[in-house]
Amino acid sequence: MSTVEEITSGDAFSTHTSSLPPTTTLVISFHTPWAAPCAQMSLILKTLASSYPPQSPPTISFISLDAEALPEISESYDVTAVPFLVIERDGKILEKVSGSDAAKVRAAVERQVGKGGNTGKVGLPPALEVTRREEDNTEGEKVAETNGEGGKGGGGLSKYAPGADDPKTAPEMSSTEGQKEELETRLQELVKAAPVMLFMKGTPSAPQPTFPQLYAGGEFVGGLDIVKEELENNPDFFADYKAAPKGKGGMAAAEDQKQSATASA
After folding, report:
1. pLDDT per residue over 125-139, tens digit each?
2. pTM passes above 0.70
């Protein structure tokens, strides 16, 4: 299966891209180690890459690089937020995807490389459809078929339940897993600490607005390019998060709206 190659220098990037034949589709993933959505993108790409068997010459190649560590390459592709995906062939950009939406990433790759069985091109396997098989028992009721004995008197899955003396099949949660869950909980609380939360590198006295990450209402919106796009499509995108007039709280603002509505009526 194919893998995602991490590129750590400009020379390595040039060597890799120049070694590919003009028919190879190159998927470039820009990330930063501190942005949480990038970890999700990494998992998505690894899963996608594993679906493509290696060929000679290669049909597709996956690479990943730190957008901040290699700023010249990032600027050449107009990367303003991470995660950011670029799909190109023979030096020509075919498509760009901003964010870590698995469906969008998969769709973009399949549009450029094709699905499995499509004119010999290799693609991601289609989603499997599971049909539940049913059969009639002696009392005329339909029961689902189970592994082992099915039908009347089969006992269903309950007969396979482990007993008190059976060995444990699931590992005990380690301290590392517990810490990960605690960290996830703290992050969820943090992104909901205010209606709109902006995360960026640096300190309050010395901010570094590189690849900012914006959350609204506890939901991840994206980076600078996504926010600009949202505002272009909807100038009132942040209307629900506007602060009340100075000196008035939320109740005062609500009362003003009520009075305004009454006056209009």
Report:
1. 444 444 444 444 544
2. no
